[in-house]
Each structure stands twice: as structure tokens, then as C-alpha cells.
Design goal:
The complex is a heterodimer of chains A (182) and B (399). In chain A, 30% of the residues lie in helices and 21% in strands. By secondary structure, chain A is α/β, with parallel strands linked by helices. Chain A has one domain (2-166). The longest helix of chain A is centred in the middle third of the chain and has 20 residues, at 79-98. In chain B, strands 1, 2, 3, 5, 6 and 7 form a six-stranded antiparallel beta sheet that branches. Chain B has a six-stranded mixed beta sheet with strand order 8-13-14-4-15-16, with helices on both faces. Classes of the chains: A alpha/beta (182), B alpha+beta (399).
Chain lengths: 182, 399
């Protein structure tokens, strides 16, 4: 089951189902239809879990100065992690309304940056979601089991059955944050 | 300026000679590698040979050689002072450890036999001093040791047991008197001023010597008027400054907050060492030999690391050769971000030390591109964290 987000192609080889969640073209399957809600890019159904997937590609070989500068400004001022958190929460609500939140949910994203920066961003997003892994006395389950960000290399290393490839061959896989420095 | 270091069968190193030699940038060289790959040994070898290259040529060859042998023991402290233990093990028959360094106009070599008590040999190809005196900043904080180390009442034998030679050397440099009033130098030597004021801003104060003790005065430099620009720095009373109609930078003490070196934060003390060395001209860009700093990040608040890197880049831009060893991603990343390769010609050369899995020998990979560092023990640590989070929270999903 191959899904594409611009220059990045994912193949969830062992999934029961996977689809573009933020589909805003009415003629296409799984039309989302509520533009005011934030949306993750893909949802993948495994036997034992749902996987929410968001993709950002600042390491795209043709990424432009202005767009990159905006991305890094948002990374620095925290609005990027706000957006990631909002995408998860709105997507969760949408799926709740669909009656499809019965399995544990993992929120994993692919951002083409170097691993150390992603580790920090992962934690920043997790802090903005309702508490994970902490005892909440009346809860029966966690909202999200794992919130984590990968780049192409770490994604492929950790999820060999969900390979991601860059469609434009031979391009840079990561981008240095210094590229956006004015 | 040290240009190249060659090590063969020395401690953990295999053959780092010829095309595998360790080259040094005239600007900044950073050594990374896991624990046990010999980063500190490499730094100490460079330090020893740079010191040897700075020795006065009036001193006869035999005395200079004797000094080098003594330093080998004092720096590396092998068991029982047995220098043959500096030769890489396991031994397969007899072998020599070789340490060699090249400078702009000559070189120095030392050969140590694996036979205990064997003859250590060496050579020099030079006709004049090859380098200014190097400076070595070890991992432990030194500022708070200066008082005890420079006190004649301290038991030297105990100190020698506790510390290697780098600590004695650095304490001696820190204890040197400031040469002149720093406010005057700031005014007339912007190269000094840029570095010194940056250091003072970073630690929000400065260290001074009072009655054989090191004291930290919180404060900052402010533009003000000074009466006597030729006044010597009054270490006994650093608050005593006169004023005149000459506009200049003045250190303004926050009164009532002076603390002993022991009570100041450890990271502040580490940067305070650099501040002191700059102030007493032990560290003088363009004149000093290499500044060698082993793990600047140790015991330092990561928030100070940006300022550490800014200071090091400033020193480098003013002609100071710098060699560092680090475990710290944050330090590396600040170099990557703050360097101005095009505008100011900043350059960092990275060397990675790693153990050859087949032979156990330590080998070297080099690059001047931060993202191309490989193998990168620091990046691997982040990848390990990523993998462990996936393992703990997602089990076998996607595998």
C-alpha cells in the first residue's frame, strides 16, 4: 500500500489499510471535508494499532529559501510543535466521531532533519499533547502511545516493513538548520 | 603552530603515520570518539611535542631530551613510571612506540621501546623555536586548585600522585600576574578586548587573586571615564578605579557579592580559566602555541556552551590555533551554526577516533564537513535513544 506526500513515498507493506487522511478533493476516496480542522497526512491501520503519520520535508533538494526560513522560524519559536500537536488532537477527534479510535494510537512523523534536532522536537510535541505515560487516575487508556519523529534514515532503520523513499533520486536526505540562518 | 601529529604503537593507536597522520587546522581541530579511543592521549601527545618545540634553543640538546622523557612520565603516568607501558599491547615481539609532530619549519620525534628500561631515543629537525608555548586545559576544573597548588606548604608528593602534569602547568599559567591594566588593553587592542569582554559577559564577572586566593567578582564591563589609563591593575582592590575624561571600558563590580573560587559555579570557573589566561597573556592569539582543551563541556551548563564556542571562534579568528576533544553534540552543533566559513574564513577540522573491530587498534577518519562525520559516536547516541523509544513504546510495529 503505497502513499505519497510530495517527494516522499511510503509503503506500509504489512498494514491492513492505509490512506491519505487529509484528502480535501471531494471526488477522491476518504474525502476529509472539514477544512477548519487540522489533519495528519496519513492514517495506517495495523491489526493491533492505528498509526497517525505527519510528513515535513525541509530536506527536499528543491526546498526554497523563503519556505525553509519559515519552517526554521516555526521550529525555533515553537509554532511547529503547536501545529504537530493540533494535527494529532484534531485528527483524533475526527476519528472519534467516525467511531474509529478503538485501538492504541501511535503518532509518528517524518521530518527531514538531523536526529538530534528531531529528538528535541519529538519531546516538545509530546509535552503539548495530553499527558502520555503518566498515571491519570480515571483513565482507562492512553490518548497516544508514542509520539516520535524520524528522518528517512532512522525511519527506515526502525520500520523496515514501512520503507520510505525519496522520489527524486540521489538527493540530500537531511538539511542543516544553519541553511536557514539569515 | 602544530601541523601534523604521527603516532605509531603509542598507547591504543595502531599506525597513524604518513597518509593516516593526524593533521591540524590552523584554526580549530575537534577530536571525537567513544570513551577509550585515546582522545586524551592524542591531546597530551600533541601538547608534549608542542612544548618540546617551544623550548629555548639556548638549552643544550641533551637537557631538552631529558625534559621530554620526564614529561612523558609526568603527563601519562604509566604504572610504576615504566614508560615501556606506553607501547601498545599486546606485544608481538619487540616494538617501538613512535610520537612525532611536524611544525611549520621542522619536526620532533620520540621513540619508546617496549622493553622495560630500554633506551628512549628521539630527534629534532629544527634550527629555531617552532611554536609558542602550548596551553592544555584538562577535563577537571582547575581554578579552585590554583591556591592549593601554588602554596609552598602543600605536599608536592601528594599533589603529584593526584594530578598529571597538565594540571600543574595550567595552575602555573593561571597564577601568573596580569601584565597590565586590562581596561587599557581593551581600549588599545580590540583583538584582546573582543575576546576578554566576551568571556566576562559569559561568566558575568571575573576572577582575581587576593592574598594567594582566587576570588570571583560578579560584574560587567561598562563604558565609562577613567582618570589614569596607565594605572596597573590593582588586584588587591579590584573595585578601586579612578576616573577621567578618557572614555573607556571599565569593569564594574556588583558590590558585596564576591565569592571564593570554590563557591562559584564549576562551569564559570572553567571559562574563568580562559579569561585569566587571556588577561595575563599566557594565551595570546598569534603568539601562543596551540590551545588544547579536553572536553570543554565537562561540568558545564549546556547553556554556557554557546558562549564557549563564541569565545573559541573569536580566539581562532585572531590567530589562535585550537585543538579540542569532545563528547558533546551541543558543542559540535554550535560550531556548525556559528562558524562563518565564507565571510571570516572559519574552519573546523573533525577527526573521529574509532576502534577497528578486527584488531582493536584505534584508527582515524577525518572530515571538515560536520554532517559527514563518520563514525560519529555522538550521533549514534541519539540514534540509540530513538531506537530505544521505538522499542519501549511500539514493540514490533513496522518490523
Amino acid at each position: 500500500m503505497s502513499l505519497t506526500e510530495r517527494d516522499l513515498s511510503f509503503n506500509f507493506t504489512n498494514a491492513e489499510d492505509s490512506f491519505v487522511f487529509d484528502q480535501m478533493k471531494p471526488a477522491l476516496p476518504n474525502f476529509h471535508g472539514i477544512s477548519v480542522m487540522h489533519r495528519v497526512d496519513f492514517i495506517v491501520e495495523m491489526t493491533e494499532a492505528w498509526i497517525f503519520v505527519e510528513v515535513k520535508d525541509p530536506g527536499h533538494p528543491n526546498a526554497q529559501g523563503k519556505g525553509l526560513a519559515k519552517f526554521f522560524a516555526e521550529l525555533n519559536d515553537g509554532t511547529l510543535s503547536d501545529t504537530f500537536a493540533a494535527k494529532f488532537i484534531d485528527s483524533f477527534i475526527y476519528r472519534w466521531a467516525e467511531g474509529k479510535v478503538g485501538k492504541p494510537i501511535h503518532y509518528i512523523s517524518l521530518v527531514t532533519l538531523e536526529p538530534a534536532l528531531l529528538l528535541n522536537l519529538s519531546d516538545e510535541i509530546a509535552r503539548k499533547l495530553p499527558p502520555m505515560g503518566m498515571p491519570a487516575p480515571r483513565w482507562q487508556r492512553h490518548l497516544v502511545e508514542n509520539c516520535q519523529i524520524f528522518n528517512i534514515e532512522t525511519w527506515n532503520e526502525n520500520f523496515p516493513k514501512w520503507p520510505v523513499t525519496r522520489l527524486s533520486a540521489g538527493s540530500a536526505a537531511v538539511v542543516q538548520i544553519s541553511a536557514a540562518a539569515p | 603552530m602544530i601541523e601534523k601529529l604521527e603516532l605509531k604503537n603509542f598507547t591504543k593507536f595502531g599506525d597513524l603515520t604518513g597518509e593516516h597522520a593526524i593533521t591540524f587546522s590552523p584554526n580549530i581541530t575537534i577530536i571525537i570518539g567513544e570513551n577509550g579511543t585515546g582522545k586524551t592521549h592524542l591531546l597530551k601527545a600533541a601538547y608534549l611535542l608542542a612544548w618540546a618545540a617551544s623550548l629555548d634553543q639556548q638549552v643544550d640538546v641533551a637537557t631538552r631530551f631529558e625534559w621530554k622523557v620526564k614529561q612523558l612520565e609526568a603527563l601519562f603516568k604509566p604504572i610504576d613510571g615504566d614508560l615501556s607501558r606506553l607501547v601498545r599491547r599486546p606485544l608481538n615481539g619487540q616494538r617501538h612506540a613512535v610520537l612525532g609532530a611536524s611544525f611549520s619549519s621542522g619536526g620532533i620525534e620520540i621513540k619508546i621501546p617496549s622493553k622495560r628500561g630500554g633506551t628512549i631515543s628521539g630527534g629534532e629537525t629544527k634550527s629555531q623555536m617552532l611554536s609558542g608555548s602550548p596551553i592544555f586545559i584538562p577535563t577537571k576544573e582547575v581554578m579552585s586548585l590554583v591556591g592549593g597548588m601554588s602554596d609552598p606548604a602543600s605536599d608536592n608528593a601528594t599533589l603529584v600522585r593526584l594530578f598529571d602534569q597538565t594540571y600543574f602547568d595550567l595552575c602555573a599559567l593561571i597564577a601568573r600576574d596580569p601584565i597590565v591594566n586590562e581596561a587599557k588593553i581593551i581600549e588599545y587592542d580590540p583583538r584582546f578586548g573582543n575576546v576578554y569582554e566576551k568571556l566576562t559577559d559569559a561568566i558575568n564577572g571575573r576572577f582575581v587573586f587576593q592574598g594567594g586566593k582566587v576570588v570571583f567578582y560578579p560584574g560587567e564591563y561598562q563604558e565609562s571615564f577613567k582618570k589614569d589609563p596607565n594605572a596597573l591593575l590593582d588586584e588587591a582592590d579590584p573595585e578601586k578605579y579612578a576616573y577621567s575624561d578618557t572614555k573607556t571600558s571599565q569593569f564594574v563590580v556588583k558590590t558585596g557579592e564576591a565569592v571564593s573560587a570554590h563557591m562559584s559555579a564549576e562551569g564559570v570557573r572553567k571559562l574563568g580559566v580562559v579569561q585569566r589566561l587571556v588577561l595575563n597573556k599566557s594565551l595570546s592569539p598569534g603568539i601562543s602555541g596551540p590551545l588544547i582543551w579536553d572536553e570543554p563541556e565537562t561540568n558545564m551548563n549546556p547553556k554556557l556552551l554557546r558562549q564557549v564556542v563564541e569565545v573559541l571562534i573569536e580566539l581562532s579568528r585572531n590567530g589562535q590555533q585550537i585543538v579540542l576533544a569532545t563528547h558533546d553534540y551541543v558543542l559540535l552543533k554550535w560550531f556548525d551554526l556559528l562558524m562563518d566559513k565564507k565571510g571570516k574564513g572559519d574552519h573546523v577540522l573533525f577527526h573521529t577516533l574509532y576502534k577497528d573491530p578486527a584488531t582493536g587498534e584505534v584508527k582515524l577518519e577525518s572530515t571538515d564537513d560536520y554532517l559527514a562525520i563518520t563514525p560519529n559516536a555522538i550521533a549514534d547516541t541519539f540514534n540509540d535513544l530513538t531506537k530505544e523509544q521505538v522499542r519501549l513504546k511500539m514493540g514490533n510495529l513496522g518490523k
